[in-house]
Each structure stands twice: as C-alpha cells, then as structure tokens.
Fold this sequence. Notes:
This protein is an alpha/beta fold. Helices cover about 35% and strands about 25% of the residues. The strands form two sheets. Strands 7, 8, 9, 10, 11, 12, 13, 14, 15, 16 and 17 form an eleven-stranded mixed sheet that branches. The chain has a six-stranded parallel sheet with strand order 3-2-1-4-5-6, sandwiched between helices. The longest helix is centred in the N-terminal third of the chain and has 18 residues, at about 105-120. Bound molecules: L-homoserine (HSE). L-homoserine binds near residues 159, 160, 161 and 300.
Amino acid sequence: MKPINVGLLGTGTVGGGTFKVLQRNSEEISRRAGCTIRIAVVADTDIVRAKGVAGDAARVTADAFEVVNDPQIDVVVELIGGYTIAKDLMLKAIANGKHVVTANKALLALHGNEIFSAARKQGVMVAFEAAVGGGIPIIKSLREGLTANRIEWIAGIINGTSNFILSEMRAKGAAFADVLKEAQSKGYAEADPTFDIEGVDAAHKLAIMAAIGFGIPVQFDKAYVEGISKLAQQDIRYAEELGYRIKLLGIAKRRAAGFELRVHPTLIPTGQLIANVEGVMNAILVKGDAVGQTMYYGAGAGAEPTASAVVADLVDVARALTADPEHRVPHLAFQHDQLSNVPILPMGEVETSYYLRLRVADKAGVLADITRILADQAISIEALVQKPHDGEEHVDIILLTHLTREKKIDAAILSIEALPVVSGKITRIRMEALQ
Ligand code: HSE
C-alpha cells in the first residue's frame, strides 16, 4: 500500500509527542498498519517550535489552511484545540475529502454532531481517541470492545488536574487554593484553570463517552457541571472518616425515563478501586449488561500517552482506507440513523444518595426537626454523625442519605436551612456506590 501522508496541525505537547512516537516506532507501526504513515507537513504559527519538532523530516508552514487544502495530504491531525480556527480547519479538511484525527474534546463536545454529519456526507473518518482519557483506549473500548453490551452506566475520573488537586488536599490536608497553585507550578493546571477545576473539561469528555455508549447525539449543553473549587478541606476529612473518598466524577447513567449526564464531586466508598486513583491519573468504569463492570486506567494527559492515542487513530484510518464508508465503524458507534432521541434528564430527576454537612445549634429538638423534614420528603437516613463540640456554640452534623431524587433533597435543604437553629448554608455532596 502507498504511504499515508499526514498533515500535523499544532506542535505543542501532543503534536511534538506524536511526531516523536511515529518516528521512534515507525517500523512497528508500518508492520501493523500495512503501510508507512509519515508526517509530510507540520503547521504552527510558532515556526521555530515547529522546526524544532519536525527537523528535516517534514515540511514546515505557518499556514494551517495550506495543509488542509494540500492535495498530497490524506489525513489531517488537528492538535490546535479550541472552537474557532480548529473548527474551520476541520470542516475544510473534511470538505476536501481528508480524514481527520483530533484530540479536541471541547470542539467535539460542542460541535461534534455537525462535524460527524459533514464527515459522513464526505465519506471520511473523524477519529478522536485522544479526546477522552489521553492514552487510555476508552473510545475504542466503548465503541468496539463493548459493542455486544447495553451500556448501563459510565463513571470516570476524566480530569487529571482536578484529581491531582483532590489527592493533594486529602494527603496533605491542604486547602484548595494552595494545591491549585502547586498544580500550576508543576504545569498540570493551565494559567486559566477554569475548565479543569470547574468540571467543564470533564463534561466535554463525558458528553462524548455518553454519545458512544448510549447511541445518542453529543449533548454537552444538557450536562450538569459542578467543579471542585468550592470543596472544603473538612468535607474531604469527614468523608475519609466515614470510609469515602471525594473524586470529581463524570457520570452517565441509563434510567427508564432518560439518561443522567452529570459532573460533580462525588463520595465513593474507599474500597472501590476507582476511589484509589490518585494524582493526575484517569480511570473510567463502564458497566455493560453482559460484561458487568470494566475499568480502564492510565495517563489522561501528557505528550506520549496522548500521542499513543493519536497514532492508534492514524493506524485505524490507514486500515480502514480501503473499506467502503458504510462498512467502517460509525463515528458514534451506532449507525447514524439509529441515534436515539431519549432525553437527558433534568438534574431534579437524578437519583443518587447524599452527604450533607450542617452547622446547627447544640440543643434539644434540633435533630428531630431536621429528620422530620427529611421524612416529609421520604428521604431515608443511612448515617448521622454529630462531630464533637469544638468550643463553638454550633456543631457540625454529617448526614448520609439513602437513594433519593435531587428535587427532594433540594426541597429538604431549603426547609432545613430555614430552621433558626441551622447556621449558614448546607454543604451537599452526591454519593455513588458504583455497584
Ligand atoms: N486538562 C486535562 C486534564 C488534560 O487535566 O486532565 C487534557 O484533557
């Protein structure tokens, strides 16, 4: 087979890693792909950086549009990121009949349906293993390895930065703001860490996984997104005392009335394998009706781990080039005319259990008032702990509930906060047994 010519857009961390891995392992990669995969041209507005990556092995240009319009290029690897230029470049590459490999989760989460539709009409592939979980082959697993299953739920630690922060807060007893600074100095968190710490990056990835797992369109706009920036050190400590770890989880769950799609800090029993995933590592649990629970663990970011996913996609594209478009694996795993319009449930309909922390006056009848409000909402209590008096007039009460609906806990929280014996706001963190 003739060599595949690749145009690489973006020579940052992942672009540089992709160049290196393709060069280092070129012989093994060719033996697998059945042809040579070579980066023919590299585009970056930072020409010096691009030259540093490509050396003499590829042509360098500052104009990425030149690459997507180059008739010699078979596959475009988009590693620029963002929604604007990356989208124009990708759509142009598709319109020119080129296959695309991308790590751009934000773009696919927001515009994936449009991009996949354009690609289908042109009969080209858009491959995006690197968009979710870095080097973990979770897209391939969901789309192909688990294809026999009705996927029941997916729950993942899919943002390494926030997992690093939570791990450090627990291990060192440090406050959120201090650990964030450390993460930034180590290069884990961006200068603007909003997407990482506010759950947006995780929700991008979750929306993509849910689409592939359930056969629904990509619906990032319907996801509930809550990050870790308001998490207090004392909740991590109290959770630990009760046998739980707090993780930022992306959860997609099949329910009779629709799908849950949510990202938020979550208490997980410490005995669960995923509760012990620490630092910048990622892990994703998938529950299929036939296979049961499976877990995928690995580096969710970084030059070579992410390059591993990009190059795997390139090999996939190379292998599928000779297949008719209708005989290729569909972009979202399900045939495009078989996507379901079963809705994403509003947050009020989500079913889970809760950790509540209240600060209350230490006097007779307080617990009775609180438990009466919960009983009125048919919320059953699993555990209740009053923390020892610390000399203050008020004490902390930690309450764990059994499974209930979010709208019931919302109503109960409002009523409890209105009690004169309750001071300030109630802290609510959702819990998942993951069984
Ligand atoms: N910023 C992401 C993370 C890595 O912290 O996991 C790229 O998806």
